[in-house]
Amino acid sequence: MKRWLVALAAAAGIGVTTWVAPAAAADAPYCGIRWGSLAKQADNAAGAHLTGVRAGRHACFDRLVLDLDGRSAGYLVRYVPAVSEDGSGRIVPLRGGARLEIIARVPAYGDDGRATYLPRNRSELVAVAGWRTFRQVAWAGSYEGQTTIGLGVRARLPFRAFALAGPGAGSRVVIDVAHR
Fold it and tell me: Which of 70, 101, 151, 160 could form a disulfide with 35 if both were Cys (CB 3.0 to 4.6 A apart)?
């Protein structure tokens, strides 16, 4: 009887260990990322203008960079059901299971009204075909001192947004979206 109870207790201990271990592994952050998927914003005032949009791939995330010709601007980055064009309100079609609306509080035109950034292809600002997270980067317009870009991503994934100074007198607004 004692042997049977010892065996039962050992089996129960193994069962608890295997049941708890997967939950602990699931709670571990992917690449140390603990960003979340809620809206991110900064209210920096800037006299800058958008001059470029580019992207890069990293081991744990895909990165979108908005280049500015002055100090860092305010921004709002959030998941939305649909991204709309500035001014007209028309929906910007985006590939992917989720859509990030990126609003940079800078225009893409100078004080004289000339474009400081003019996309060659409004539907594909950056070629991201085959990327792990990004599906499409599209223009939504620049109106009344702010510029909107739609980012189609694979799914609603954790992301972060921040501004960086440089190069030179310029700055950048950076959006990183985790691979998982």
Answer: 160
